[in-house]
Structure formats: structure tokens, C-alpha cells
Amino acid sequence: xxxxxxxxxxxxxxxxxxxxxxxxxNENGSNPFITNASNQKNGDFEFVDYKGNYGYDAPNFVQAxxxxxxxxxxxxxxxxxxxxxxxxFFDPFDFFFGQPEQQQRGRQQQxxxxxxSGMGSGVIISQDGYIVTNNHVIQGASKIxxxxxxxxxxxxxxxxxxxxxxxxxxxxxxxxxxxxxxxDSDAINVGDWVLAVGNPFGLTSTVTAGIxxxxxxxxxxxxxxxxxxxxxxxxxxxxxxxxxxxxxLVNANGDLIGINxxxxxxxxxYSGYGFAVPANLVKKVxxxxxxxxxxxxxxxxxxxxxxxxxxxVKQYNKQFKKNxxxxxxxxxxxxxxxxxxxxxxxxxxxIITAVDGKPITSFSSLSFIVGSKRPGDNVALTVRRGxxxxxxxxxxxxxxxxxxxxxxxxxxxxxxLGAEFEPLTERQKDSFGxxxxxxxxxxxxSGKLAAAGVQEEFIILSINDKNVSSQDDIEKILKNxxxxxxxxxxxxxxxxxxxxxxxx
Length: 504
What we know:
Elements: H1 15-21, H2 62-69, E1 72-79, E2 81-85, H3 93-97, E3 108-109, E4 115-124, E5 130-134, H4 135-138, E6 143-147, E7 153-155, E8 157-162, E9 167-171, E10 193-198, E11 206-217, E12 233-236, E13 248-250, E14 256-264, E15 273-278, H5 279-292, E16 302-306, H6 310-320, E17 330-335, H7 340-343, E18 351-355, E19 358-359, H8 363-371, E20 378-385, E21 388-395, H9 413-417, E22 419-423, H10 426-432, E23 438-443, H11 448-451, E24 459-463, E25 466-467, H12 471-478, E26 483-490, E27 496-503
Antiparallel strand pairs: 1-4, 1-6, 2-3, 2-27, 4-5, 5-9, 6-7, 8-9, 10-11, 10-13, 11-12, 12-15, 13-14, 14-15, 16-17, 17-18, 18-19, 18-20, 20-21, 22-23, 23-24, 24-25, 24-26, 26-27
């Protein structure tokens, strides 16, 4: 699992013993696990049934474990990253002799080869080889290797990703594979037993046990990879460590209730708090990727805060001279132009209390419900304005303001790259000593460029060895292009990099 600062997933292996301690005494005050020493002969050993007389049998996870381990795979992420080491920002020979890849003059370059850059887990969800994992497990990969529980390895195809939920879908060429079934993750309860299955620290087919500690958790971790993160995690104390990311969280029957994604830990290893993407959301993401090539997501087009957040309420009251009280719901503080909410009559200062009759307790729960729907879907939004309450029927739009469902083939090259560009000014060209290039004006963290390590204000110099001077140049080079893309760019300090990714 690639390192996620401060987060991972956790377990209950040791706590089962602790729990047993609360029930050691039977009705007459004796311990059913301890034989009276006065009745035991020296040198004899006695065995007792671990089922104590305390009202129920200890849980048995053998069947669920055997079922789950065969559906969980190990994933290796190989990246092909090449940095051109040079002292100046740009080599003037490029003007006369072409790209540095073609003319290696005064240049030292690392070999162009795949290097292992991360490991994680994945879950087989169909007999014909579809595998779910985390986006951060395979992000930036030039090659993805999948190893089954039987140690057979495959090179996987990346079918699609969704950074907003940190879910990715892979495919291997195989039939008749064991697979896990999705169950309704909304039906699980806090206190239900769960198993976490994965490959922590490279230890294959590891199973740990715990319970559902909480539902609907937001830990503000996915914003690093997405502008519109959806966080409504299942929290568990089942032990999860580096390498577990993308693995399965299953119920006591061995069926999938979530994809293990993150932990909260001061050390980067198990400390009791783990988080999984709910199976219902995973299922929707997978269906969208398989049907459309991209995830279809509805947006309300609002910004706001949890009304239960006392500090946020105090700040809001101070700034706007209001006297709002803490409560359940979401306070709308900003409306996006041409968004679903503003077009339906929602106003700043409104308090959203329910969606489709389901009470809203936080912005994360609101995002989860709305983000699980597609553009064109309708939702009933219950809103409190002043002393009155009203229900608005809203048709959801996508992030571009359209109610139409779009497929991957409808995206422009710059949408796939996830960026907007602007030409360099003459002053910038003179300063950098170049006569071409475009600057990254805006970057969507879910796009190809962000995954390749590009940041805003970096300068794109060439794509597939062709110089670029405008956004139109990029569109022309990549229009209808499929295959491996090589991009050369410069960072803030003038260091030039060449990295690759696949357009499909």
C-alpha cells in the first residue's frame, strides 16, 4: 500500500482474548476454563471446550476466512519514471536538434524501465477476472501485476478509476475464478463482526477480526486526490496495516461489505482505527466504469458545513451576525452557478435536513447519498429556511452542469488529462530561455496529469515528442489517441521530467 499520511486500517485479534475475560466466571463464581488444582494429578494436562457457560458460543470465522482468502489478491504497482538531470532549465540544442530523447547531448538520464513502487491488495468480484482495489494502490502505474492466492501471477488491465472514492477496477484474462459477492452495506450495524483480508507487509492471505466501530465516517483524506471526495467510511477495529489497502472487509459469512482503504495511526501501522469504502458505493462505481468507462456522479453544486460542528456554527454566526444553533443538517454557505441547487431555488443560509426522506447529519452523508446517484436522477431535498420547512425536487447535474450521462468517449483530451492550460507570455519565455510550452493553469487531482506528478504552474513542454504552445496543440496531439503517452514537463525549479501514462 502506498503511504497515506497518518491513515490505515485496524483489528481485533488481541481484543478477543480481552473480551473473553469479562465472561470467565460462570454462575457459581468459578472459572469454566480453569480446573481445580486440588483435583489434578501432577504432570497431567486437561483440555476444555472453549465454549464457556456465558450465554453464547464464541464466534467461528473459519468458513468466512476460507471463503474470503481465495478472492483476495496481491497487487504490485510498477512505475516507469524517468528524470532528466541537467543544470539549466532548458537545453538550447533542443531548438536545433529536437527533443532530448532524440539527441542526448550533455545529458545524464536514468534507464527507462519499470520499477516496483508500491504494493497492496485487491478483491476478485467476478469469475471472469474483474478486480476491485484502491486508486492509490495503482496510481501512476505503468504496469500492474496481480498475484492470486494460489501464487499464479497476471499482468492486469486498468479498466478505470475513481479518485473521489479511491476505487479502481482492474481486469485479468482468466475464467472460473473464485469471487466475493456484494452485500447491502447499508444493512450492517455497529457491533457486527467483520473480517479484514489482505496482504499486510507482504504477508499473503492474512485475516484479522473485529467489529463495525462506526458508520458514515469522514476523515478528510481523499481530498488529496480528488476535488470532490466522497467519504462515508465504515470504521472498524479489525487489524489492517500497510499492504492491506484495496483488500476486503467481509461479514461473518465472508461476503463483501467494504474495500479497506485507510487507517488512523500515529505510527503508520495498526493502532485501532480502520476505514473501508462501503460496498454499495463500490458497486455503483464498478457498474459505472464497466458501462460508461467513467463514473457518473450527480452534484448539488453547494458548499457548506455540518450544523453539528459547534466551532463552525460560532464562526458562521460571528461572520454573518446570525444566531444559528447547533443541530443536525448541513448549512448552505455557497451556491455554484448553474448548479442543481441554485436552479431549483435553494438559497445560501438554507439548512438541508434530509434527502429522499433520509435524515442528513453531516456534509459527508449528504455527499454520499447525492454522489451515489447519476446526472439526470431526481432527489427530494428537505430544506429548513427560517421557521419553515420545504421539500425541493431537484434534477441532479454533473460537475460540468449537464444532466446528460456521458461516456468516456465523450471526454475531450484535456478533460482526461484533468487540466486547463494557458500559453506562456513572452516575458516567461525570455525568463526561461524557451520559445514554446504551456503552463498548467488549473489541475483536477483526478486526472492523468496529477497522477503523473504534474502540479499547477508546472510547464508542459512536449507530448509524444511534439512541442506544445497552446491548449489546442494538446487537443490536436491527443485527439482520438490511444496508447502510451510520453509527457515532458518542468517543475518550479527548472528540473525537467519525462513521465508516461496510458490513454484508452
